[in-house]
Amino acid sequence: MSLIQTDRLELRELNFDDAEFIVALLNEDGFIRYIGDKGVRDIAAARDYLAQGPMESYTRNAFGLYAVCLRQGLGHQMKDGAPIGICGLVKREGLSEPDLGFAFLSRFWSKGYALESAAAVLSHAREVLGLHRIVAITAPNNTQSIALLHKTGFKFERKVRLVDHSPELNLFAHLSSGRA
């Protein structure tokens, strides 16, 4: 069941049926380089990741990372409901506000799907969840993600470390409709 729809995409909650996709996504070179190695190498580890991450977040926070799927009937070759990426909000230790997160299988990069899903998640956060300040973090060298954040209205605020001795990250903030 889709939670958020755009012209080309449906975003829905991740579930255990997405375990194979999660193994593929979390082991992409770009994911490991820019987000980190989560150590998810098989279906069992993917199920643990889903249960302890996105699925737990839906219950605890009323938001989380969502599966991004191409809408049916648009002439693509994807199996109905098969995810091409993830996008949503994460409540991270070390950040006081929800953090916009996104990652896509590399064959779906540079097609506007990340921008389309990020804009939809921001709208959902504002209109449905009543959130007015969202942050995002990126590696300083992740130019594609930084460009996407600028296109969706995020502004660079400062450098941060989520925990002591972790890499320094760029923190961006998005304020909706003039509220602080």
Structure description:
- There is one protein chain.
- This protein has 180 residues and is α+β, with helices and mostly antiparallel strands.
- It is built from five helices and eight strands.
- It has helices spanning 19-26, 29-34, 43-61, 113-127, 143-151; strands at 2-5, 9-13, 65-70, 83-90, 99-104, 133-138, 155-160, 169-175.
- Strand 4 (83-90) and strand 5 (99-104) form a beta hairpin.
- The longest helix is centred in the first third of the chain and has 19 residues, at 43-61.
- The chain is globular.
- The termini are far apart.
- The model has no long low-confidence stretch (mean pLDDT 91).
CATH superfamily: Gcn5-related N-acetyltransferase (GNAT)
The total beta strand count reads 8
> Spatial order of the strands in the main sheet?
1-2-3-4-5
Order of helices and strands: EEHHHEEEHEHEE
The CATH topology turns out to be Aminopeptidase
Total helix count?
5
Structural class: alpha+beta
What is the approximate shape? globular
CATH class: Alpha Beta
How many domains make up the coordinates? Answer: 1
Helix fraction bin: 25-40%
The biggest sheet amounts to: 5 strands, antiparallel
- Uncertain runs are none
Overall pLDDT metric: 91
Q: Rg from C-alpha positions?
A: 16 Å
